[in-house]
């Protein structure tokens, strides 16, 4: 029998269209040639590789699934997933950048913005000329965004925003922040441009996770924005939660890439390292671990592909996204830790990827809804009882 691809045991690639395969190959090449040679160093320095933004834009990776009339590539949901997977095979920070720009910033403008807002922002954001950030989480607790303290009050034709947001990806880089604030009419979204008086950002340092990504706090002290900067199409928590469904869908794919990177290193390393006169991979105890990694990666791949087909068919339910976010991030975090262990001492430096991925995935399992939040969403669906 022919040998299977160890990183795609179910030949899931055969289920992709030619266009989807082309997207995957293009992003894979970008990761191999542009990200992998430098990312360990960026992680060590605690910096985001800014110079790659223009290249990602050139490849159509920013806002990939919005229509061409807004300067975007008009790709489907499965292609967006493959972009996330191949970027996160490089580093979760690269995928985070694209998740935030695409699903948390361009999506609300596309879905809830006016036609003028779409025309003004989407093409420049697709080009990477304008970077966005998404401010939902507040310092007192991110899991319960309904308890929002940031407020926007009407003053004539303007709005005055007061409050703070915490742990905001791209905050310090962003030209524009999508800020969710409580109003007399429920939660609403506002576009706040850098340089607006009373709006400050401060980057968060000493992170041991997502070091190659900018994470910041946002402060709003009497920030005045015109009503034209309010997203008119949505009111209530379903606005930001609707964006999260888009981003979380991509996050079901991303960690598959991180897991494949770790699995790959574990296989190579244990095949080559000779101990007790035989390759480490010749031991049953080691093969059990590698086989188990392959099992979990394959299951995650099938979940995400099925989810993507449902998203393209328009039948996706947010609870289905929660189940896959939970499963796939947990899968990747466990595999990264196990791969680190199989590399022995070599696994503790960023010369190899598993510890970097494991540290990054500690954020991924917390952001976009902690693992517990997603478990409780699934539990509520099953029982009909809200346990939050
Ligand atoms: P509930 O009050 O029942 O619902 C409010 C309204 O929202 C609707 N809805 C959703 N819509 C779309 N997608 C979803 N996932 C939705 N979940 C709920 C719902 O139908 C309702 O609509 P309506 O019309 O009836 O008003 O809210 P809930 O009880 O479902 O929410 C509770 C809970 C805990 C699930 C929710 O608050 C939650 O998800 N908390 C976690 C918050 C979170 O994930 N924050 C992430 C911040 S952004 C981030 O982390 C970016 S990291 C990016 C990166 O670097 O990659
Ligand atoms: P908390 O909500 O305080 O939770 C603390 C603990 O309590 C968790 O273990 C949680 O699971 C548990 N818990 C909470 N409620 C319950 C319950 N009912 N039952 C049992 N356990 C419970 N946010 C943004 O808005 N935009 C961003 O761009 C963004 N980027 C981020 C980037 C990074 C690197 C990180 C780490 C976070 C980012 N976040 C962002 C914030 C992220 O969404 C929050 O960290 C997350 O929602 C959890 O909120 P919290 O950290 O305040 O934890």
What keywords describe this structure?
binds flavin-adenine dinucleotide; single chain; 3-stranded mixed beta sheet; binds 3-thiaglutaryl-CoA
Q: State the low-pLDDT regions, or none.
A: none
Bound molecules: 3-thiaglutaryl-CoA, flavin-adenine dinucleotide
How would you write the strand order of the largest sheet?
Answer: 2-3-7-6
Taking the sheet with the most strands, its summary is:
4 strands, antiparallel
Backbone structural class: alpha+beta
Radius of gyration (Å) = 21 Å
Mean pLDDT comes to 98
> Please, what is the oligomeric state?
single chain
SS elements, strand count: 9
Number of helices: 10
H/E order of the elements?
Answer: HHHHHEEEEEEEHEEHHHH
The proportion of residues in beta strands is 5-15%
Percent range for helical residues?
Answer: 40-55%
Cα(first) to Cα(last) distance is: 51 Å
Domain Acyl-CoA dehydrogenase/oxidase N-terminal: 17-128
Keywords: FAD, Flavoprotein, Oxidoreductase, Transit peptide
Domain Acyl-CoA oxidase/dehydrogenase middle: 133-223
GO molecular function, one term: flavin adenine dinucleotide binding
Summed up, what is this model?
With 388 residues, this protein is an alpha+beta fold.
Please characterize this protein's 3D structure.
Helix 4 runs antiparallel to helix 6 (238-272) and helix 6 packs antiparallel against helix 9. The chain has a 4-stranded antiparallel beta sheet with strand order 2-3-7-6, covered by helices on one side. It has 388 residues and is of the alpha+beta class. 51% of the residues lie in helices and 15% in strands. 49% of the residues are buried. The radius of gyration is 21 Å and the shape is globular. The model has no long low-confidence stretch (mean pLDDT 98). The protein has helices spanning 18-45, 52-58, 77-90, 92-112, 115-126, 238-272, 284-313, 318-342, 354-364, 371-383; strands at 132-135, 151-155, 158-169, 176-183, 186-193, 199-203, 215-226, 274-275, 278-279. Strand 4 and strand 5 form a beta hairpin. It contains 10 helices and 9 strands. Belongs to the acyl-CoA dehydrogenase family. One of its GO terms (molecular function) is flavin adenine dinucleotide binding. Residues 236-382 form the Acyl-CoA dehydrogenase/oxidase C-terminal domain.
